[in-house]
Structures are given as structure tokens and as C-alpha cells.
Amino acid sequence: MTDTAETPKMGDALSVSNLTLSYGGVKALAGVSVVVPSGEIIGLIGPNGSGKSSLINVISGAYRGPYQGEVCINGTDVHDMPAHRRASVGMSRIFQGIRLFDTLTVEQNILLGGHVHYATGYVASILRTPRARLEMAEQRERARAVMALFGDRLLPRADQQVLSLSYANRRRVEISRALMTAPELLLLDEPMAGMNPHETEELTEQLRALNRAQKISMLLVEHKMSVIGDLCANVYVLSSGTVIAHGPVGMIQQDEKVVEAFLG
Amino acid sequence: MQFFATQLLNGLTAGVVYAMLAVGYSLVYGILQQINFAHGYVYMFGTFVTASLITSGSPLWLAIAAGLVAGAVIAIVIERFAYRPVRGNRLAPTVTAVGVGLIIENVAQLIWTSRIRPMPFPFQADIIRLGPVVLSPLQILVAAVGLAMAALLWVISTKTDLGRAMRAVKDDLATAELMGVPVDRVVVTVYVLGALFGVVGGILYGAYYNTLSVTMGFSGTLNAFTATVIGGIGSVWGAFAGGLFLGVLQAMVTGYVSSALLNTVTFTLLIAFLLFRPTGIAGVQVASRP
Amino acid sequence: MMSIVSKAALRRAIPAIASFAVASIVLPGLCGTSAFAADTDAVHIASTAPLTGSAAAYGIETMNGVHLAVEEINAAGGIGGKPIKLSEYDDQCDPTPAATAANQIISDKAVVAVVGNVCSSATLAQMPIFGRVGMPVLAATTSSPALSAKGFENFARIIPNDDIQGVASLDLGTKVLGYKRIAVLYPSDDYGQALLAIAKRAATASGAELVAAETYITGSTNDFSSVLANIAAANPDALFLAGYYADMGAAVSQSVRAFGDKHIALLANAQTQVPEYVSLAGAAAEGTWVTNVYDINNPSEQNKAFVAAYTKKFNAEPGVQAAAGYDNIYVLKQAIEENKGSTENLMPVIRATKHEGAMGTISFDKNGDNIGGSLVVLRLTGGKWVFDDESTKKLNAH
């Protein structure tokens, strides 16, 4: 996966250019361009139905239909890349409504994020060869390290079924699972939704720490402007499928078009 | 007491064979919520490969290996060309499965004719005495293979990334894919596993009962399917339990009631479970997402 | 009760294909008219057998036997000095062409008897048509009990019907071999149910006891272990295999485990006498007793002569079809001779005939059924079906 030095997007974790997407004749996205420079947290805001989730779905591969334009993750055009391969170029995501594997435990859910990096084949895994055991032990070690990012929120609950967890903890499991894929780019679709102010504050700090310590770039969709203000240097504003404004948070909040889009 | 022990052993032996076949249905249903109607034909074909190689003088290990490989290859081909293109559709896979099954049966008839054939196997005529109870070395083999296959299933489902991925795909296929799980590979592996369990069951069946026919692809799977429903379709442990339960029940009905009631009992049980306890004895509620 | 109708009159009244409705209106007026118009030059016999279609092989082999007998008889001066003249019809083993053939036969006033029938369904369609003119039918290998159960007055057949064969398989065990405790393994279909009923009757009649009756579903049961355990637990002397050869082969193969050291004799019917049974059942089949309607190795003088002549003429070994066709003509010859050369009112004479033929001793009951005196006994010995002369004689003596 070595990329050529000539690629202009080199250095950007994500670059979406001129993305156009229609569902049955209705344009969901019209010529959207978004860049997440490496190591930055970029905000994405907009009224309901403005195309935020559509954008996230195209980037992550959840949307499989045709689109025009270009989506590059870490300099790789992902147009023909099946969803499960995108994790291997360093992208992972969480979902607007939490999507966990309900019959698995906390630890198993998180371990699943590591599958993309497994070197052990199925047969070796069934035969439990020394190498397979070693890799499995390593993965569990990594999973514990990821859980440790959330203090003692998840570690004591590692063997519980995810269904028995609180909403906030379920969200933490989902983020942990995404982190387990060792992403360079994280797509966060309203991670604070449904959390109380204290939990929101805690998660904000944890995301900031992740960004600083592990240099993980993020595209953050969020309704709470305080969170956007805390975390993001730059913000894109989507309305009716187009980017109507783009820039630092303070500037965006003054933009007439933005005010109109949110109030109108 | 001796009669009871004999019938119990007969029932358990048949039960292990049913269980092997039932696991094949349950594995596939468990992750795709689809009844793999081609399963019976796949196991029939693999078993016939083994039987005809034994008859033509191949070493036993080679014949068994070839049967397993044949079953696996057919499963891969069917998954790739008959199931994957229509995955997600509720009805289409059933139609393609039945079509593929008929093709396999016709090919098998062309190769092996529709004559009923024996399957020579070591120990077929040997008996072991345990006090008053007569036992066949093959019954011990059937039990040992049954245990080994159960152990294999246990290792896969609890100790491997494959097992974890299977459960994740079952819970939410799309999310599993987005989290980097190679879903196509997991699905085809499950079909292959199902086929291998089926062929193992078929070989045990042929070895123990010494009679094979091309039509066993359809008729022979009735019991396996009933066992799957009794056990709770989608649960592999339910399939094991359902297989053993059905085998023992049939032996007891034959032994203590009447062999004339065997089909009546089997079908009544199937219908009763479908009507009153569709989740089977395992009671698994297959997770469904809106 | 059946009136004999002048064929000439019939021909005037009803051309070639007569419907029953027309016949029932016309016939009363024709009753009592004179009998067969005499053809003094020859004995005219018609044959109806499948010469084309799926059963053609059986029909052709039957006709080979018929031809051989006709040739021999004519070379030796015919019947009472008159040669046999054979007219052959093809019934295709199908009721519709069979009815057409029957109508053609009854329109030929010279024909005195019909021989050669192979298929029960075709013969059932023909019998009412032949009955209208009282045409004697001496069938070859039709074996359905339904044919004689209908009470046709003009019907007799060369081979014992399925019921009589079934009784004989059981009688071999009880009356000849002296077994007292009999178990039965039968398929759950009509065929199996019928054989079970026969076995029950025959066992009771011979003073033996039916100690176990176990059933299975043909085509889907391959696991016989539980029913065999039941049979073993009932402690029988003999097991009557009243099913299809493939199922019986599987069951016998599995019986080694169920029966252990118990010696349980195996009695089977004719259809088990095939190589597939032996290959499926393996060593456990050794010693299986079978009754059949014919065996090429029957050492009787009549059979030896028949086999030699047949092999010389056709360069092939005769089977049951050929033997039945051959005996068919000789029984008819003997009946006409016993009727002092007359072909009038032939059926009562045929039914009273006792003939030593290639198959064995052929004699009939009041329904025209071969009573089973010609059945042969074979035993699987060293993987081969061997004719058992002593048991055959004992069985036929009963």
C-alpha cells in the first residue's frame, strides 16, 4: 500500500473532492469537498437531512451504490474497495445509533475490531498453533490497553454481555472497537448523542487525548456546538447536500448563510 | 434392561449421524437465517465419492479425504455462484438451492446410477460384548467421531477468531463488514464447515448402515432437518441435542411402541415444534435487526 | 353363466372394436347360438404379450418359450394330428393397446385360446373383452392376485400368483424346515401390508407363531438397527424378509450386529434372488432361503430337456419368462388332448389339468391359479443361489 509521492492528497487523512450522490433522482450530496488533514479533528455540522450521514456512509463503504467524485483515505482512492478492506487502509467509524454485536461480550466486541490485522489463518486458529495462541494473546493485550483508555469504565466489565451495559458504556465499547482497528482516521457520527453533560465532558477529553497521543485524525459529526468548539480547529457546514461554509468555529458561527440554514 | 441398553445405543448412534447433518443446517442458518436446502445433496455427493473410491480399492484415508474435499469444493462453488449473488434476499436463495440440489442429484445419478449400493468399511461385521449388551466397534467409532466433531465445533466457536467473526456476522453482517471482518470469507467458510460435518455424517451413515442411495440427499435429510428444528434452528448445540434426542426417541418408539408409528411420531414432532416451539429446545431467538 | 356366442354372429353385429354398452344390448338376442365354428385343419392359438415398449424384453422371452413349444409339438405331429397355428398380438404391457388386441382376437372366430400374458394390468383390461365370447385365457407370468380374485370364469395362469408365492416362502420355513417362531420384516406400503397379512394367515395355518412383525419405509429407512433389535428380542427361529431386495440387503447386512450369536434363518421371496441383495447384505446373507417360480438348474427331466432345446435354438439361457411361455403351450396341448381333441368348453378342462413341465408340477385351483406345486427352493450357498432339490420336493408335497 505504498503511495506515490506525487499524490497531491499526501498528508491528508481524508480528502473528499466533488462528491455527488443521488438516491433515486434526489441529490443527497452535490459536489461536496472535505479535507481532514493528518492529525486534526475536523467538525461536520448541518441540519438534519443535510447529508452528514450520507457522507460518512460513502467514506466508510456502508453505502455501496454509485457516486461521482473522489474519496481518498490516507492517499488511497477507495472507490472500488470493499468495506471490510477500508479498515486496512486506516479508517474506522462509529454509528449514529450504536451498533454493537449483541450476543458478544465487551471484550469480544472490541477484539473483533482487531480482525483486520490478524495474520493467523482459520485453520491455524482452529489448530491453535503456538503462533496463533501468541497472536491471540497479543490481541487481548491490545484490547485491554484500549479499554484502559476509559479508566475503569470497561475493564471490570470485559466479560459482560454488551446488552447489559449503560448507554454511555456501550458507546465506549463502540469507540474501543473502532480503535482496535488501529485507525489513522476515525469517523465519529454524533458520539455524544444521548450522553449527560458529565459524560460528554469526559468523552471530549478522551477524544482530545487520543488525538494528541496517538495522532488519530477525526471527522466529527456533532450537534453540540460546545463539543465542536472544544475539539475542532475547522468546521464544514453542510446544508441540502452542499458545503455552505468552511472555516474556524468562531468564524462559522458568524456566517449569515449558516445562521439562516440552522434557523430557516 | 439389556433391550433398553441396546435400543439406547441404536438411538444414540443414529442420533450422532443426525446431529452431524443437522449441524450443517444450523451453521448456515445461524449466520444467514437461510435454510440451506442444497445441504442434503452436498453431503450425499461427498459420501458417494468416498464410497465409490473405497469400492474401487483406494486406501480408506484417501477415500475419506477425497469425499471431504469434494463436499467442500461443491459448497464453495454453490456459495459463490448460487448464494452470494442473491444474499440478503429471503426467497431467491431457497429457489437457487433447490435448483442446485437437483443438478447435483442428477449428476450423481449419471455417475453412480440410482442403484442402492453398499459401502464397505472396516469392522462392519464385528461385535464387542459388554456383558449382555452387544456393541459394534463402529458404534464406538461413531461416538468418538461425534465427540471429536463436537469438540471441534466448541473450539471454533469459543476459541477462534473465526467463531467470533461468525457470531458477529450473525448479529450484524453490515457492521461486521465495516469493522474489517472479511464477511465473504467467513460465509464461505461456514458453508464449507457445514458441508464437512455433512460428509462426515454421511460417511458414518454409510459405514454403519452399509447402504447408500442417490436419493438420500432428499429423503435422508428429513430426520436431520427434524433434528435441527427440534434443537432450535440456528443453534449448533441445539442441532447436536436435537439429533441425539430424535435418534433415541425413534429407537424407543420402535422398541416399545411400534415401528409402524415411526413416521407418524417424527412428523408430529416436527409439526408440533414448528407450531408451538419454533425456537426449539435450545430456545435460541435468532437476532433480527429492523 | 357366461354365454358362449357365435363369433360369426358377433362379427355381423359388432365390427372389430365393440363397446361393452353395445354388446350388452345386442348379446341377449344372440344367446344360445352354436359354438365355435370349426377349423378342422389346425388348432388356432392367439398370443398377447408385450413385444414393444418397456416390458418388451419379458414379452419376447415369453414368446421364445412359446415358439419353441409350438415348433416341438408341430414337429411331433401337432395336437391330435392338427398343427398349432399361432397368431401373435402386441399388448405393449399397456391396457389400451391390450384392449385393442383383445378385440382383434375375439373377432377371429378360429382362435380357441389365448396364451402368453405377461402384464397384470394389461390382462385386467382384456379379461372382460375375452369374457364376452368365453375365450379361454391361459396367462404366462401375470402374478397379481387381483386377476383371479375378480372371478373370471375363463382365466387360468401358469405361474403361482404373488399371494401363493408369499405363502410358499413361509411354508418353506414352517412346514419344510420346521421353524415354529417366525418374525416378519415388511415395508409399510400396500405390497408389504399384503405380504404381512399372508404371512399371518400362513403361519397360523401351519401351526407356527408370528412372534414379531416389524415395518420400515422403503426408500427412506436405512437404519434397521432398532427393528432388528426388536426382532432379536422376540427370539424367532426364522425371519421372513417380505420386502424389496435393496432394503432386505441393508437389513441383513446390519443383522450381524443385532443378532450376535443368535442363529435366525432367513426366508425370502423371489424378488430377493438378485445379485444386488447378495452384494448389499454381504456374508450375513449366506444361507438365505428363497422360493421362486422357476430355476434353470432344476434337475427334473422336463427342465433339462427344455433348457437344452432352448439353449440350442436361441443361444441364450432361459429364464422364468421362457419357461412359463413353454409350459403355457404344453398345458394347453394336454388339456385339449384330455378333452378328446375337442376345443369346446376348454377352461374347466384346463383347470383340471395337472402337467409336469419345465417349471415343475403345474395344477390349478378353482380360480385358475397355479396352486404352487411348481415352486422351487434355492439357498444362498457360497454367495451363489443353489437349487435345493430335497426342499423343493418337500415344499411341493405340501
Summary of the model, kept short:
The complex is a heterotrimer of chains A (264), B (290) and C (398). Chain A has 264 residues and is α/β, with parallel strands linked by helices.
Describe the structure.
Chain A is built from 10 helices and 10 strands. Chain A is of the alpha/beta class and 264 residues long. In chain A, the strands form 2 sheets. Chain A has a 6-stranded mixed sheet, with helices on both faces. A 4-stranded antiparallel sheet of chain A has the order 2-1-4-5, with helices on one face. In chain A, β1 (12-23) and β2 form a beta hairpin. The longest helix of chain A has 19 residues, at 130-148. Chain B has 290 residues and is mostly helical. Helices cover 72% and strands 2% of the residues of chain B. Chain B has a two-stranded antiparallel sheet with strand order 1-2. In chain B, α5 crosses α6 (161-171). The longest helix of chain B is centred in the N-terminal third of the chain and has 31 residues, at 2-32. Chain B starts with a helix and ends in a 14-residue tail after the last helix. Residues 286-290 of chain B have low confidence and may be disordered. Chain C has 398 residues and is α/β, with parallel strands linked by helices. Chain C has helices spanning 7-13, 20-30, 56-75, 95-106, 120-132, 145-149, 162-176, 190-205, 225-233, 245-259, 275-281, 301-314, 320-338, 346-352, 389-397, and strands spanning 43-49, 84-90, 111-115, 137-139, 155-157, 181-187, 209-216, 238-241, 265-268, 289-292, 354-356, 361-363, 376-381, 384-387. A 7-stranded mixed sheet of chain C has the order 7-6-8-9-10-13-14, with helices on both faces. Chain C has a 5-stranded parallel sheet with strand order 2-1-3-4-5, with helices on both faces. Chain B: The chain crosses the membrane at residues 12-32, 37-54, 60-79, 91-112, 132-156, 186-208, 228-249, 256-276.
